[in-house]
Amino acid sequence: MSTTTAEQAGRRVEEVLDLLAEKGDAEASAAAEEVVRVLMEFYGSGIARVVELLGRPESRPPADPLGPLLADDLVASLLNLHGLHPEDAPTRIGRALSALPQPVENAGFDPVTGVLRLRVTASTGCGCSGTRESVRQAAVDALACFAPEVTGVELESGAREPALLQIGTRPSLAGADGRSSAAR
Fold first, then answer.
1. Model's pTM, two decimal places?
2. Burial of 77 from C-beta contacts in 10 A (0-12 / 13-18 / 19+)
3. Distance in angstroms between the alpha carbons of the first and the last residue of the chain
4. Which among 20, 63, 71, 141 has most CB atoms closer than 10 A?
5. C-beta of residue 53 within 8 angstroms of C-beta of residue 72
6. Considering only CA atoms, which of 164, 140, 171 is closest in space to residue 154?
7. Rounded distance, CA 182 to CA 44, Å?
8. What is the mean pLDDT of residues 136-146?
């Protein structure tokens, strides 16, 4: 990766924005300026997060100073975006899955298709069909930051959820004459 100074980058951005403005397309120029603003906010937030994570007043520095950075969604996404994340894909996938509220097991990742198969390891709750989709969506969201090479998530059907047990009053044991069948 080539090293560009802040001055060089700033000059190049100004040149491109000026070129767009000269072309007379005000809409394209405004859109380009908005892209620059959004990217500046994104990177500014990432740098602020790094400073915050590394500058926390702790009694002693962490044994692994990268640990807090790699566990942070924003910093991890920036590292992944530029191919700088030091962890391999299986480790990053594991990190993302461990942060989910519902325990899941990695049932396999196909790097060619980008599909990750997951197995839910505990009941998703009430037996409602929507809970499986919420587990899948939570995995998709977590993996977007930590493992962007995962482009699809499939849930394998694991153990069947327990049937919903209806509890009601016990039917009466009394016969038509009002006496219990045991008293007859």
1. 0.62
2. middle
3. 93
4. 20
5. yes
6. 140
7. 80
8. 91
